[in-house]
Amino acid sequence: MGRFSVTYWLGAADEPEARTRALDIALEQTVEIPRDTVPAGYVEDEILGRLEKIEPAGTERGGFLAEISYSDDDMGGDFLQLLNIVFGNSSIKANIRVEDIRLSEGILSLCAGPRFGLPGLRERTGVDNGPILMSAIKPVGLSASELGRLAHDFALGGMDLVKDDHGLVDQRTAPFSDRLKACVDGVNEANARTGGRAAYVPNITGPAMQIFDRAWMAKEQGAGGVMVAPALAGYDVTRALAADPEFGLPIVSHPTFSGANMITPTTGFSHRFYFGLLQRLMGVDAVVYPNFGGRFGFTLKECQSIVEGCQMEFGGYKPIVPAPGGGMTFERVPEMRAAYGDRVMYLVGGALIREKANLVEASKRLVAAVRGDA
Amino acid sequence: MGRFSVTYWLGAADEPEARTRALDIALEQTVEIPRDTVPAGYVEDEILGRLEKIEPAGTERGGFLAEISYSDDDMGGDFLQLLNIVFGNSSIKANIRVEDIRLSEGILSLCAGPRFGLPGLRERTGVDNGPILMSAIKPVGLSASELGRLAHDFALGGMDLVKDDHGLVDQRTAPFSDRLKACVDGVNEANARTGGRAAYVPNITGPAMQIFDRAWMAKEQGAGGVMVAPALAGYDVTRALAADPEFGLPIVSHPTFSGANMITPTTGFSHRFYFGLLQRLMGVDAVVYPNFGGRFGFTLKECQSIVEGCQMEFGGYKPIVPAPGGGMTFERVPEMRAAYGDRVMYLVGGALIREKANLVEASKRLVAAVRGDA
Which residues of B touch A39 (CB under 8 A)? Predict the structure, then answer.
């Protein structure tokens, strides 16, 4: 059977210590029994993790990079088990971080990958060049018709995607089905006037037994995509939706509740892995993440590594669209253009809501500023 | 409507800075728009988070404790939205940690809580006094009949619960349905000989669209509980299962992939909150966590805070069973008895697998050592 491999950064004083830690990980992530009790034959030869390579991580960061290979057999065609092998129990240890993954036939066959990605979203939105734009309707507490009006105005102003705030679920002020109808209608009405192709993207994160129902409801009612928060809803939801040709809607991933996964430099995942490679394996088409210089602490370099993870060659999977958000304002457009160029989707929420009285005009100004034809 | 509140630890140089941060959180976790754009009336009065209290956290740890209240309306009867409000986007910030929650009518009505907890598990296992014991069948790569034999021997040796290793899913070496049958049969056969009530607890973490099917399959085939890894499968799965009276099996929660949620003292959740209070809201009956002094870095004090979170008075929810695991050995029994007394479930995996040739005898010795009647 095939094997995939994961590269971990390990904090360790010297190579013998790093090697010992790496061999511990190879055990922990697979058989989880003491080394001398691993059954000879198939379990030892195939299932047990195998340390393939270990080397210093370089002078700047210190520590070591260890590449450990795992069996497709162990993964057993199960995406959560893949994640369990990649970083299950070892996630609870410090001084270990997931940096990279080398794919296998088993992963390529399990993970269909993004159905649309950047090329598919360009085709659907008609934005052949330049950045795509996405706004968010909010806050929670508005009625379905008020939210539908916001969606209409954003679409009329030229936004390509209009997504729910991630806090919109099924509150009594704007129940999911009412909001879905109001926003789809609002966006369609705007499209009829502009001749555009704006799309509404409802948040389907919700009760475990209703997530797929909401996804299909969105599809049937004419939404142009769905948004899921994998750290809350579970990491297999997007993969299952992306793999279903009958479903066939773009998927936006939201980072809420995922923070601790990448917030310190010596635990969790690298930004590039978590917001890039992992999202592509999950079949996500566009990934929301906190922009540098906003309300969150990500650096420019970390954000650029996310773009790399989203768009570098990776098992033939389509490149996907990084969507930096969180405190974007009009003033920051030039800086973001310089940092990201055309490769990202601009997510603008609060800064537009501020212009509520003139939302259509404000959206138009932003679109013009971002596309550089202002 | 009712309001619940969350207490956050905030790293801040002085009270004005802490207050500013707390007010930012109140915005971020609810309306997520600039303060001066929050609509007056219902949104501002009800939905917007409200800073109720702020005070120094005490000299030892520094920083501040801020209590922020939120509306049941915002939660909208959705558990993932509750978690989203508690720590959604703010999870991506450093120097903020979730410490405590004050319940509301809305939460009490949404979260049925643990169906069994410690009293229910005592009744089902017949262990009226002293610690309950749980072992794990492993490693991945053994056949269903080999795993069934391990389950049989553990049960014959007096273990109360026999759970799957969390890496066992639906691998071809031991497909879920084959393993379920072999292990239920093995445990039943042992019970017939001992007159005991040992129970098999399969891992139902798996593809998003199959998790509930596997739970029901486990129920129908005679399993005595199910195990779920919420950080992989999603945080609403256990709540949904616990709330269903037709299901009615105990639920064991596994910490795999959750590590980053509590691994640093200034991000994520306190151990007490994550492994205690949150699990009870999720309807979990027993929670596996890494024991102090084993392969993971949790301290004795952190582990004792987990026991507190599992068993303190909390909204009338049943106390649940903390199950420390990860490197437990025979030698550590006295130390663990001293630290935990009778209030926990001992999870012993690898140390027993080592005694595979005499698993029944080894299990008996361990049971005797733990129960103090050796």
Answer: 139, 141-142
The range of the structural domain enclosing residue A65 comes to 3-110
Q: What is the CATH number of the domain that holds B146?
A: 3.20.20.110
Whether B93 and B142 share a structural domain? no
Confidence label for B373 from pLDDT (cuts 50, 70 and 90): low
| A133 & A251 share domain | yes
* Chain A residue with minimum CA distance to B175: A76
Task: Tell me whether residues A89 and B255 touch, CB distance under 8 A.
Answer: yes
Pull the structure tokens for residue A135.
């706004």
Query: In this complex, do B43 and A77 lie within 8 Å of one another by their Cβ atoms?
Result: no
**Nearest 5°: CA angle at B115, between B109 and B117?**
120
Calculate ∠ Cα B2-B4-B8, nearest 5°: 160
E strands, chain B, are 3-10, 50-56, 64-71, 96-102, 132-137, 161-164, 199-201, 226-228, 251-253, 286-290, 321-325, 345-348
B294 has pLDDT over 90: no
**Min Cα–Cα distance to chain A from B105, Å:** 16
pLDDT at B175: 98
Q: Which helix (H) or strand (E) holds A67?
A: strand A64-71
Residues B207 and B77 occupy one common structural domain: no
Q: How confident is the model at residue B195 (pLDDT cuts 50, 70, 90)?
A: very high
Kindly identify which residue of chain B lies nearest to residue A288, measuring between CA atoms. Answer: B89
State ipTM. Answer: 0.95
Total tally of structural domains belonging to chain B: 2
Domain boundary among B49, B78, B110: B110
pLDDT at residue B206 is higher than 60: yes
pTM for the predicted model, two decimal places = 0.96
Mean pLDDT of B122-136: 95
Q: How far does the CA of residue B35 sit from the closest CA of chain A (Å)? A: 10
Minimal Cβ distance to A297: which of B94, B211, B349 = B94
A285-337, pLDDT tens digit by residue?
999 999 998 888 899 999 999 999 999 999 999 999 999 998 788 889 899 99
Does one domain contain both A156 and A99? no
> Minimal Cα–Cα distance from B179 to chain A, Å?
14
Calculate how close chain A gets to B59, using CA atoms only, in Å.
Answer: 25
Asked if residue B292 and residue B251 are part of one domain, the reply reads: yes
What is the model's pLDDT at position A374? Answer: 40
- Among B92, B110, B128, the domain-final residue is B110
Q: Do A167 and B139 touch (CB under 8 A)?
A: no
Clarify whether residues A102 and A124 are in a common domain: no
DSSP per position, B209-271: TTHHHHHHHHHHHT-S-EEE-HHHH-TTHHHHHHH-TTT---EEE--TT-GGGTSSTTSSB-H
pLDDT value, residue A301? 95
Chain A residue with CA closest to B24: the answer is A295
Which H helix or E strand runs over A371?
Answer: helix A359-371
Residues A199-210 pLDDT 10s: 999 999 999 999
- How confident is residue A48, by pLDDT bands cut at 50, 70 and 90? very high
Q: Are residues A189 and A224 in the same domain?
A: yes
CB-nearest partner of B350 from A34, A84, A257: A34
Q: Does B271 lie in the same domain as B153?
A: yes
